[in-house]
Specification:
elongated, abc type-2 transporter like fold, about 5% strand, 4-stranded mixed sheet, mainly alpha
């Protein structure tokens, strides 16, 4: 026990001398968590609270184009500004930069007349179905000239499709209102009452959104709940930059050979490194979670809500940290130089993070990546944390995620032992 304790003290002293390693293990992950959470929270705010700036160039003189603009404004997604009806493409580009607008809609000249003609034709077909109108008054096909949408290339495809869907809904509202007015007038020979019109157009069935959870908690997860656990895992595995290099340095310096001449075993040194750096990973998690709980509210970010099962959180953190330590030692065992350990270690962690769902949502991966994802330890770490933080689960609910993680950890330990024996180091 004394040998193990002495070896742990030695590893702690070595760790404290590694200022760059400490920076990578603590300061950099904290900065990363704050920046990424802030960016994603701003994105959530953009979608849920803020509005996209949109310019409208209305070349039409009719009433329906004004109704269309009003319908766009009522969606609640856009901040609407209007351009001169004589604006050309060059002027539109200039105005988009001036207003910092992401979108511009061009309403064509005959928009109102074409919508009226289409609505009249549609209502005529409906009346014909009731036997109230002859074929001679119905044209087979009428269409409205397409709207033109200019958009800033920085807009992601998903947001662009959402915008197109919202604009399509506004356009459909205008066309439907005009069709209803035509139908009502044709049948009753008087205008459609405004109250009835509003009732027919706005009486939509509401959609209630409820997040699933294991404990029945209906709290909607925020950007903090998504990002803090994910980047805590990334920080844990990034100890490969310090621990992997430490193992390589001891191999190069001859520490392994000297240990073989002493009345001890390198397995004691290996256990010491695991205990020391396991405590580092737990400390990383404590620091990052504490920042999420206490600091985030002071910088206008949502506070981190810890799971109800604190014991489960501690055990999941322990297993995730042990897996990160096992990966770092395994990599250091087979790396020939510190440059190899640091370079391959950093790149491999980024790749495993991408495949594991930390940087790209796992549901977005397709094809062979659906299989590869199961071999990333970061994926199983993330699944376990999400089960606690996002789904309100307890330890028993994340056991299916911890079992593969334990298998990967034990496999890394086994490979490390084989590597040390093959190099005659133990």
């Amino acid at each position: 026990m004394f040998k193990l304790w002495s070896t742990i003290l030695k590893d702690v002293r070595i760790l404290l001398r590694d200022k760059v390693g400490i920076l990578l293990m603590f300061i950099m992950p904290v900065i990363l968590v704050i920046i990424v959470t802030s960016i994603q929270n701003s994105t959530f705010q953009l979608i849920n609270k803020n509005k996209l700036s949109i310019l409208i160039c209305n070349k039409d003189k009719g009433l329906l184009s004004e109704q269309f603009i009003l319908a766009i404004d009522k969606i609640g997604l856009f901040k609407v500004d209007q351009l001169s009806k004589n604006a050309d493409e060059i002027m539109i580009n200039d105005q988009m930069h001036r207003f910092d607008a992401l979108l511009t809609i061009i309403i064509p000249t005959n928009f109102s007349n074409e919508v009226k003609a289409k609505a009249k034709n549609s209502s005529g077909k409906a009346l014909k179905g009731f036997g109230l109108q002859s074929d001679s008054l119905i044209e087979n096909k009428l269409s409205v000239s397409p709207l033109t949408l200019y958009y800033n290339p920085i807009i992601e495809e998903s947001l662009k499709y959402s915008v197109q869907g919202a604009l399509g809904s506004a356009l459909q509202l205008v066309e439907t209102r005009e069709t209803l007015r035509n139908l009502y007038f044709s049948i009753n020979e008087k205008p459609l009452p405004e109250k009835l019109e509003n009732e027919m157009l706005n009486n939509q069935t509401k959609i209630n959104t409820i997040p699933t959870s294991h404990n029945g908690n209906k709290i909607v997860p925020n950007a903090t709940q998504h990002n803090v656990p994910a980047w805590t895992i990334f920080a844990m595995f990034f100890i490969v930059m310090s621990l992997g290099g430490n193992v390589v340095r001891e191999k190069i310096s001859g520490s392994f050979i000297r240990l073989k001449t002493l009345p001890t075993s390198y397995l004691v040194g290996l256990l010491s490194k695991q205990i020391t750096y396991l405590m580092v990973t737990i400390l990383q998690a404590f620091v990052i979670f504490s920042i999420g709980v206490w600091l985030f509210p002071f910088i206008n970010l949502p506070a981190l809500r810890l799971p109800n099962d604190i014991a489960g959180l501690i055990l999941v953190t322990f297993i995730c940290g042990w897996c990160a330590v096992s990966y770092a030692i395994c990599l250091g065992t087979f790396a020939q130089t510190q440059e190899q350990a640091n370079g391959f270690g950093a790149v491999s962690i980024v790749i495993l993070a991408i495949v594991g769902g930390l940087m790209v949502p796992s549901f977005a991966l397709q094809g062979a990546f659906k299989t590869v994802i199961n071999f990333s330890p970061l994926h199983w770490c993330l699944e376990a944390y999400q089960g606690l933080f996002l789904e309100g689960g307890k330890l028993k609910d994340v056991i299916p995620n911890l079992i593969p993680l334990m298998v990967i950890t034990l496999l890394l330990q086994f490979i490390t032992i084989l590597g040390l024996k093959r190099k005659n180091l133990i």
